[in-house]
Amino acid sequence: MDQYWGIPGGEDLHESTEVQSGGHAPNPLVKLDPGLFIWTILTFLILFFVLAKFAWKPLLAALESRENTIKSSLEDAEKAKTELERLNAESEEIIAKARSEAQTIRVEAKSAAEKIKADVMVQAGEDAKKIRDEAEKQIQVEKDKAINEIRQEVVNLTMTVAEKVIKKNLSKEDNQSLIEDSIKHLKGYDA
């Protein structure tokens, strides 16, 4: 039983299998066959026209749409970046302005506090002067009142002395001595 087991339908194998298996037949893919060449070109052109008619326009439209979307996104990003830079510059300007205003307010508040302090000091000085002047006036009034009381007392004493003198007849020297004592006594109260 010398049977050869082979591939079913192996008798009809293409020549290329024989070349690979060690035969000397040329490879049909490398061999130029004018019929196959024409059919390949014809198939390619038909496929090209079908693709150009049905697929090329939608592909180009999709690519153009994608390109426009990307351009629009880039423009929006550039606008957003510009807007962000503008907002940052504006916020920096606002912060600088706020700092400047705060500094101005602080300086004004300090100046106002110093002015109020100076006004209070001046008012306190004026009030102290008024109190001192009123105290001096009161002292002068009390002094004048005391001097008047002393004078009244001197007058009363003089009257008493005069009564005694009248009751008792004094000599001229006694009268002179009594008058001088009264005047000395009166001068002591005047100071």
Throw out a few tags for this protein.
191 residues; mainly alpha; 3 helices; rod-shaped
Characterize the structure shown.
This protein is mostly helical and 191 residues long. The protein has one domain. The protein is 83% helix and 0% strand. Helix 2 runs antiparallel to helix 3. It is rod-shaped, with a radius of gyration of 69 Å. The model has no long low-confidence stretch (mean pLDDT 81). Its main location: membrane. Belongs to the ATPase B chain family. It is found in: Endomembrane system; Membrane.
> Number of helical segments?
3
Form type? rod-shaped
Average pLDDT reading:
81
**Total count of strands:** 0
State the low-pLDDT regions, or none. none
Look at the helices and sheets and give the structural class: mainly alpha
Q: Bin the strand percentage.
A: under 5%
Which percent range fits the helix content? Answer: over 70%
Nearest-angstrom radius of gyration? 69 Å
Q: Summarize the biggest pleated sheet.
A: none
Q: Provide the number of structural domains.
A: 1
Please trace the helix and strand order, writing H or E for each element: HHH
Distance between the termini: 177 Å
